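Posted in: Structural Biology > Protein-Ligand Complexes

Title: Requesting predicted complex, heme C in pocket

I'd be grateful if someone could produce the 3D structure tokens for the following input. Sequence and ligand are given below.
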Amino acid sequence: MKKAILILGIIASLVLLLAALVSCGQNLQPQVDKLTEENKMLREIAGPPPASLDNLFPPKAPAPVYLLEMFGLSGPFEGIGIDLQEGDIAGAKANFDAFQKQYIKMSDMVPEWKDKFPMTPVDTLGQALASGDPAKVGPAMGQVGEVCGSCHLLFQSKVFQKYHWPDFKIVKVNDPVTNKPMAWRDYMIALATSFSGVSNDLQQGQLDKARQHFKEFSVRFKTLPAGCAACHNTPRTYFVDPSVLAMIDQIGKAVDATPPDAKTIGELMGAVGNESCMKCHFVHIPPQQTKERWEKFEDMLK
Ligand code: HEC
Ligand code: HEC
Ligand code: HEC
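-- Reply #1 --
Done. Output follows.
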């Protein structure tokens, strides 16, 4: 009998606990909804563009189809503004019809972006143009511009990075020191090691080793343009240009002097680091790390 009461008591407290949890959960619901919505937005900000865009860019598509269609959208949109300035109402209306048609077409091209092409601002613009009232047309154009701008802010640079920037992982450089092909990143580490090797061994008074590091650094640096050619089909005039190569030759002279000219070496190595390594990193590392983040956090960004 006592046992039965005890069990009943336990069951009753469990029921109460459950009821408390449920009511608590109900109070938390708005917060859960808000966090879920924010989480979705953060994934959209941090993640890659929608996968179905792959079908609209090389290598799957023969051309950057989506980009070309965007130009097909901006042409008549800008045309509306031009015609209005010229007082050509008929022209503006014709451009609006072409714009609306292209807008509807584009709203179906990427299923994940269907809701990013709302019809209301476009309908409002059509009505404003029909009314012929400039005080209505201006703001209506602005509303449509908002639609364009908010998608561009989130996705345009990501589309650059995904489809217009080749991946450094495809680049191999033949290392002139070991005479072996190296992945770009390994080549960078070898280049940086021979670069730092010069100052490290000079500080330790190990002249021969420092000179050997310099030789390796110099020949590795001068081989870099072969790697640039993997993506650039015309030679680039920054980062590996004659002014940087001249500094490297001057470092060579200062390293070979007896005793080595430590001050010149330090200054010139700093200049090479700033003008070549660092500035080339400013340009090329952001898109590369964007690609890498998408791979590394793929599960979280789904
Ligand atoms: C194309 C221009 C370019 C130049 C010039 C360049 N780098 Fe790099 N470097 C890169 C890129 C791109 C990466 C990132 C590669 C990656 O993450 O796959 C990188 C990465 C590195 C890394 C990091 C490697 C790692 O562990 O991930 C080091 C170190 C480095 N570079 C050193 C140097 C030094 C030193 C110089 C100049 C003597 C130099 N780089 C010149 C483009 C360049
Ligand atoms: C749902 C997203 C989205 C919407 C909405 C959108 N765009 Fe775009 N647009 C893009 C993306 C992504 C690119 C980058 C394509 C590329 O570089 O390959 C782009 C590129 C462009 C470009 C090319 C810019 C350049 O010089 O590289 C123009 C022009 C353009 N959009 C005009 C418009 C106009 C005008 C509107 C609104 C009427 C609009 N877009 C609405 C996503 C959008
Ligand atoms: C993995 C591909 C890749 C490699 C390798 C690469 N770049 Fe670039 N780089 C790009 C892309 C993409 C741009 C954006 C503009 C463009 O396409 O020209 C760019 C832009 C630049 C720019 C500024 C704009 C321009 O086109 O002149 C310079 C300068 C440049 N790179 C130099 C170099 C040098 C020097 C090397 C080798 C040390 C190098 N790049 C290696 C992909 C690469």
